[in-house]
Amino acid sequence: MKIFAQQGFAESDKVKLGFDKNFIDGVIYSPRHTKIDVLKERLGAYSAGYPGKELLFDPQFYASLHADEADWRMGYLDEDYEAYFKCHNKSTLERESKVRECLANVIKFQQGQTKLTGIIGPNILISRSFDSREAVISKNFIRNTAEVAADLKEKRPVYATLAVSYQALADRTAFDEFLNEITALETPPDGFYLLISTNGGDAGEFFSSVTIANWMVLNYSLSLNGFKVINGYSDILSPLLLSAGGTAGATGWFANLRNFSLASFEPPKGGRRPLPRYLSNALLNRITAPELDQLRNTVPQILNGLSTDAHYPIADGSIPGETSHEVLQTWESLKNLNGKLSALGMPDRLRALLKMIDNAATVYAKISKTVTQLQYGSEHLAEMAEGIYLFARRSTINLEDVK
Amino acid sequence: MTFQKPTEELIKKAFPEITELSFIASGGFKGVYKAKLNGNLQALKLINVPEVPLADAESVRMRDELIRRVEREIEILKKCKSECIVKLGVLSPCGKDIEGKKFIAYSEEFLEGKNLWDLLRDATSPKPSEEELKTLLRALLEAIKEFWQYGIIHRDIKPCNIIKTGNAARPFVLLDLGIAFSRVDTPLTQGWTPATYRYFAPEMANPSFRDSLDYRADLYTSALTVYEYAAKVHPLAKDFEDPIVTVSRAVRVPPASLKSVRQDLSDDFCDLIDKLLNKIPALRPGNIAMLMKRIGG
Fold first, then answer.
1. pTM of the prediction?
2. What domains sit in chain A, N to C, each tagged with a CATH number?
3. Is A330 strand, coil or helix?
4. Distance, in angstroms, between A342 CA and closest chain B CA?
5. Do A398 and B284 touch (CB under 8 A)?
6. What band does B208 get if pLDDT is binned at 50, 70 and 90?
7. Looking at the DSSP assignment, which residues form a beta bridge with residue A4?
8. Do residues B81 and B146 make contact, with C-beta atoms less than 8 angstroms apart?
9. Does the CB of B284 have a partner CB in chain A at under 8 Å?
10. Residue B282 is nearest to which of A179, A396, A398, comparing CB atoms?
11. Nearest C-alpha of chain B: how many angstroms from A37?
12. How far apart are alpha carbons B29 and B1 in whole angstroms?
C-alpha cells in the first residue's frame, strides 16, 4: 500500500522531504508545472538519492483537447513538452493510427527520461459516459498502450491511463461493459493510472458513495486481474482504494492536487488562500489549523500522535510554520492509516475501515458537544461507509461473517 | 433435436473396420459409441444430419449450422495439444448413409473412466479432496488457456463433459466442443443461445453477448463445475426446475460460498471459487497464470 506525491506547482523541497522522512514511496510529476530541465534535474537527484522510490510522469495528455481554448492554463506543457503535447480534437483521435502516433510520442518522450521507473501512457478524459465517443477513444488508447510500448522496446512497467468523470462511473451497465473490455486485453499493460475527475473545488474533496464504490470496484477488478493500480489524486480515499486492491494512491500540497479536475486548467476564478489544514485520521478528514487549535485539548483523539503533529505548534496557534508542513502531515497520516490496514486480508480490511468510520462518528459526536463549529462536518462518513458496503455487494465480498 | 439411433448392425455394416460397438450416450443430433476401429478403442461420434426441404430456409440454415458446428469442433481439436483436452481418433470425418439417413462420423480417443456427473451423483462416491479439486481446476484452466489462444470459448464446461481418467498424467480430460464459440469466426447462431442452462454464464443472458463474450465465461462454468463436484450440490440450480428459473438465478442470485457447504476446504480455495462465480466477468480473477500459481500449478 503505497503513497505517492502528486507533484504540482511550487514543489520546492516538499517531495525531497517526503522521501527523507520515508512518508512517500514515489512521485508523479506534472509537466504542466515543471520546466523540463527541472524535471530532469529532480529525476536525476531522486534516482541517485532515493533508490527504490518510484518516479513517474503523468503526461497530462487529457488537457490536449483543450489546448487551444482561450485563457486555459497549459503551463509548461505548451513550451517544454511539444515533443508530444499538441492540440488534438476528438475527430482526429477517432483514428487508431492517430492514437498510436500519440502513444508513441508520449512513450518516446518518457524513454528519454531514463530515471523514470515506469511509463504512463496518454489518454483523454471520459467526461460523461462510458457509452460515448470519448470512451471509444479512451479504449483505443488503453488497448494500444502496451503494444506501442513493446514496439518501442520499452522494458519498464507500462501503465495505461484511465481518466473518467465521476458522472460516467455512475452508469453501472456501461461501466461494467467497459471494465469487462479493459480487463481482457490481448496485450495488457502492467497496470493502470486511474484518474477520477470531480467538478473541482472543495465540494469534490469527498465523493458520493456510488463514486467511492465504483472507484473501489475499479481497483478491485484490475488488481484481481493482475494489474498494478496507481490512483492519482486519491488523497484521503487512498486507504479505501488500496484496501480494495490498489497498489498506490497519490496526493499533493494544494487542493487541486488532492482531487483531479480539468477545471484546474481553466482560467483562474480567484479566491483567497485556504487555511492550512490538519488531516485527522480519527476523523478521516481534514480540519483547519484554527479548528485543531480549538479542539486539541478538549477532544485530543483528533490528533494522530505522529511526528508531524509537531508541525502544528500550540505556541503558534497550531499554524504550520513552513509551506511543506501541511503536505508532510498528510503523507505521514495516510502512511499511518495504510499501515493499519496493510497487514489485513481483504474482508478484514473493509471491516477495519468500517470500524474506523464508526470511531470517527464518535469523535465527531464529541466535537459537536464543544463550541467549535467545523467548516466541514461528518457527512463524508456515511458516504464512505455506504461506498464500502456497495463495493462489497458488487464484488460479492461478505462483510457479515466475522471469523 | 433428437438423435435417430441406427441399429448397431447397420453401423457395423457402414463401418466394416468396427469390430466391437456399444452405445454410450446421445444428445441433440449426436450419438456416441464405444467402438473398436481397426483394433483401436475409440469414441465413435455419429451426427444425424436431418433431411430438410430445400424450400424451408430456416431448416436449411439449422442443418448447415449443425454441419458447421461439427466442422468447427474438429478444427479446434486438430489445433489443440493439451493433454487436458480430448484428442481426435483414428476415424477422420466422413459422411455416411445409414438406412437412408445421412450421418457425419468421426472418432475421438476413448477415455477410460467416469464423467464427473456420474461421480457426483453417486451417493457412495466420497467427496473429493482439495488436492483433487485443484487438479481438476488446473486441468480446466489449461484447456481454457489453449482454447483462448485460438479465440475459442468452450461454452459447455460441465461435469458430464469431464472424464476422470485415473491416469496421473492426465487426470481430467475435457470433452465436447459442440457449442464452442469463436471470437474470430463468423457466429454460427443468430437469435438464440446454445447452452446448457444449468451451466450458464450470466453474461450469456445479455442479448449482445456475441460482441463481448470471452474466456471468462469458461472460468465461470469451470468454477461452477468444481463447486458442484466438491459439494455434490449445484450452487444455483435445482433439479427439475424450469430452465428460465435456473437462468434467472444465474443472472441475479449470488451463490452461497463454497465454504458454507465444504467447511473442510481451505479459505483460500473457497474464496477463489467464489470469486470466479462473480456475475460480472471483470470481477472474476481472469489472469490464468495467476490462477495457476494460486492453486499451485
1. 0.89
2. 2-265 (3.20.20), 277-394 (no CATH)
3. helix
4. 18
5. no
6. confident
7. A26, A250
8. yes
9. yes
10. A179
11. 41
12. 6
| Cβ atoms within 10 Å of A307's Cβ, excluding its own | 12
CATH superfamily of B114-294: Transferase(Phosphotransferase) domain 1 (1.10.510.10)
Q: What is the architecture, at CATH level 2, of domain B8-109?
A: 2-Layer Sandwich (3.30)
d(CA B122, CA B235): 18
Dist. CA A59–CA A401, nearest whole Å:
44
| CA separation for the pair A103, A343 (Å, rounded) | 38
* B212:A394 CB<8 A: no
CA distances from A296 to A317, A367, B215 (A): 11, 10, 56
- Count CB neighbours of B41 within 10 A: 16
SS3 A287: strand
> Which residue ranges make up each domain of chain B?
8-109, 114-294
Give the Cβ contact number of residue A238 at 10 Å.
Answer: 24
Q: What is the rounded distance in angstroms from the CA atom of residue A323 to the CA atom of residue A273? A: 12
> Are A106 and A32 a contacting pair, CB within 8 Å?
no
Record: contact B286-A225, CB cut-off 8 A: yes
Q: What is the ipTM of this complex?
A: 0.83
Which of B277, B280, B285 is the closest to A176 by Cβ? Answer: B280
List b or e across B201-237, with b for residues whose CB sees 16 or more CB atoms inside 10 angstroms. bbbbbbeeeeebbbbbbbbbbbbbbbbbbbbbebbbb
Strand spans (E) along A180-291: 191-197, 228-231, 248-251, 277-280, 285-288
Q: Which of A180, A395, A398 sits opposite B281 (nearest CB)?
A: A180
CB proximity B184 to A under 8 Å: no
Distance CA A26, CA A327 (A): 14
Compare all CA atoms of chain B with the CA of A214 and give the residue at the minimum distance.
B283
How far apart are alpha carbons B149 and B144 in whole angstroms? 9
Question: Which residue in A179, A180, A394, A399 has the most chain B C-beta atoms within 10 A of its own C-beta, making it the best mutation to test that interface?
Answer: A180
CA-atom Rg of chain A in angstroms:
21
Q: Does B283 touch chain A (CB under 8 A)?
A: yes
Question: Dihedral of CA A281/A284/A287/A292: which sign?
Answer: negative
Per-residue pLDDT of chain A (403 residues; tens, 9 = 90+): 899 999 999 999 999 999 999 999 999 999 999 999 999 999 999 999 999 999 999 999 999 999 888 888 999 999 999 999 999 999 999 999 999 999 999 999 999 999 999 999 999 999 989 999 999 999 999 999 999 999 999 999 999 999 999 989 888 889 999 999 999 898 999 999 999 998 765 544 457 899 999 999 999 999 999 999 999 999 999 999 999 999 999 999 998 899 999 988 988 777 777 899 999 999 999 999 999 999 999 999 999 999 999 999 999 999 999 999 999 999 999 999 999 999 999 889 999 999 999 999 999 999 999 999 998 899 999 999 999 999 999 998 888 754 4
Is B123 in the A-facing interface, judged by CB distances under 8 Å?
Answer: no
Nearest Cα neighbor of B212 from A394, A189, A174, A214 is A174
Pairs of residues, one from chain A and one from chain B, whose beta carbons lie less than 8 Å apart: 52
The SS3 of residue B59 is helix
Give how far the C-alpha of residue A164 lies from the chain's centroid of Cα atoms, to the nearest Å. Answer: 12
